[in-house]
Amino acid sequence: GTGPHCDPTSLTILHQDSVGGLQVFVDDEWRSISPNAGAFVVNIGDTFMALSNGRYKSCLHRAVVN
């Protein structure tokens, strides 16, 4: 897995599989993102947040493994 972090880039596009492991920190807790095979997850990064003057937020996330 990866430790908690925000992406420094503009966008990160993840092509999902059926395994999962992505978690997002929301309302002071880690929430698992349910995998949807064939779907894409788009993470807003720090650069995009700056370019949008904070309208779109960079999210704290991590990848976990069992």
From TrEMBL:
Short name of one Pfam family: 2OG-FeII_Oxy
Gene3D superfamilies for the chain: B-lactam Antibiotic, Isopenicillin N Synthase, Chain
Originating species: Eustoma russellianum (Showy prairie gentian)
Domain Fe2OG dioxygenase: 1-66
Name the record gives this protein: Gibberellin 20 oxidase
PROSITE patterns assigned: FE2OG_OXY
Gene name in the database record: EgGA20ox
Entry-linked InterPro entries: IPNS-like_FE2OG_OXY (IPR044861), IPNS-like_sf (IPR027443), Iron_ascorbate_oxido_reductase (IPR050231), Oxoglu/Fe-dep_dioxygenase_dom (IPR005123)
PANTHER family (alphabetical): 2-OXOGLUTARATE (2OG) AND FE(II)-DEPENDENT OXYGENASE SUPERFAMILY PROTEIN-RELATED
